[in-house]
Amino acid sequence: MRRTSASIEKSVEGAFEGDALAYLISIYKDPTKPENLRMDAAKVAIRYERPALASVEQAPQRDFIPLAERLKFYASRDLADADAAKLIEGKSEAVAGY
């Protein structure tokens, strides 16, 4: 394929010496070409110049708990753990009237 391309470049006077993308770029950057031709060249070349964005599927958020609620839960859990530790160590504070 490359040999054929090289032989055509040598035999055809004025043949473009670059690859297809370079040719498209030369067209869409040439202000002397018609606008519609430049636009078509840009549309084809953009697929090779910039990667296409991939679609990303987002999983449903069934187990989502807001941060404020999680912090309240953690604080109450830590408080309960601290109270349990006091009871285990025998350091329970006496409540007045009991």
Question: Which key terms come to mind for this protein?
Answer:
98 residues; 2 domains; rod-shaped
Describe the structure.
- The chain folds into two domains: 9-49; 65-98.
- The longest helix is centred in the last third of the chain and has 23 residues, at 67-89.
- The protein is mostly helical and 98 residues long.
- It is built from four helices and no strands.
Topology:
Elements: H1 2-11, H2 20-28, H3 35-49, H4 67-89
Helix pairs in contact: 2-3
Overall strand count = 0
- Rg is 36 Å
Query: How many domains make up the coordinates?
Result: 2
Taken as a percent bin, the fraction of beta residues is under 5%
Give the structural class: mainly alpha
Largest sheet: none
Q: From N to C, what is the helix and strand string?
A: HHHH
Q: Globular, elongated, flat, extended or rod-shaped: what is the shape?
A: rod-shaped
Low-confidence stretches: none
- Specify the number of helices: 4
Give a brief rundown of this model.
The chain is 58% helix and 0% strand. It is mainly alpha-helical and 98 residues long.
